[in-house]
Design brief:
The protein is an alpha+beta fold. Helix content is 28%, strand content 33%.
Amino acid sequence: MIMIENPRLLEEAARWFAVLRRNVMTVDEREAFDRWLADDANRAALAQIEHGWEVAGRLAPSSRLAEQPAAISRRTALRAGGGLAASVALGLFAADQSGLLSGWGWDGEVETGVGEQREVTLPEGSVIHLNVLSRVRWRLASDKREVSLDAGDALFTVSHNPERPFTVRAGSGSVRVLGTVFSVSLREKDGGVAVREGHVAFTPGPAGQSSDPVQLRAGEAVRFGPHGAGAVTTVSPDQVGEWSDHFVTFDQAELGEVAQELGRYFPLKVRIDPPEAANRRVTLRLKLQDQNSTLDLLRQLLDARIERKSASRVVMRVPS
């Protein structure tokens, strides 16, 4: 096996491996993956990650409740020596950096694909409604309840229990509640929190970092990212987690963002024509029905013309 030592390349391979484990890709992801895989070095890096993952599976504790293994450092990986051992160690290092080894120490996880929504009830009674292309993990203890939203959107209906605070970690922020209904979203490193009922405390910043929490009540929301949280805004409580009722609202969103979001709900790539129209900002609310009905509704709202190029590709021609 060719040993790849470039950490950036290994981390890219680990991210693609995580996508492949979903067993479903958006049209854009498939095209990007095919381009990435055409490179020999990328293929070798992916093979190294796959081999490291297989070894990790053989070394994994038999119980899902076992303690999470200590983080793997690059220095530790390089000390593994040459040849196959170093190849596996570097692959495990990249997988660990990308969160692929984080399944240890969690009680369970749920993941959805394109157009798929799921609902799970935790043993203590809280309900998690998961949107398309989303992933959550949870860990329950006698004195606390912890959830990690790794991607996508989730609507939480939390059972009230002052003795067991409920915490959701998403990207660079966390939400702590006792019992309420709220949603959390995460796209890459940026996310948002919105409250339908009750009250939550949102803390921006990495876990363990001291920061003043942002208090959010019903009808309030906040966006956040690696550099902190934005200002608290108002939102209709009925629109919090409205995707669970197959609605999605865009408020002054770029048309290109609308097209990209449709690719999360349907195996579809929408190209805006002319290209500059993709920067046009629109405010609209869509009922997500079947693919054709949703496109027809969007056509009517924008006075656009739809040209279907294939089952998974359309061009939306927007009047200037």
